[in-house]
């Protein structure tokens, strides 16, 4: 249909309506493109941060969180108990305690019982004070200094 009857040539065909709608959509598409470009930059930055965080130091921080059972083992270790005593107290086998300790050492980045005990005490207190975790008991100077035999 045209408006030729009124002296002007205005097309109201489906093709014209489609062009009109696409003209209306053009600013939206431009805005969407700008938003997607911005989001792409954000995603690239996040991806870079994730790649950087795959470094061993970052991985160690992610893994440093001990499971509840590992925390129980670590606390008993920090209190100075032997594997046998820890196993009895937690109703575990000594081999299971040893397995937990290997994981604890790895997560805490230490190689010895003393290193694990110090790390657990520091993490539990949040201040690095020498209080045995979960007990409120102060460690003796030789335990605190790692000179206990």
UniProtKB/TrEMBL annotation:
Give the signal sequence positions: none
Among Pfam families, the record links this protein to: GerE
Asked if the Swiss-Prot or TrEMBL record annotates the protein with the keyword Transcription, the reply is: yes
Q: Residues annotated as region Disordered?
A: 124-149
CDD domains xref list? LuxR_C_like (cd06170)
Alphabetized, the UniProt keywords read: DNA-binding, Transcription, Transcription regulation
Protein name (Swiss-Prot/TrEMBL): HTH luxR-type domain-containing protein
Species this chain originates from? Kitasatospora putterlickiae
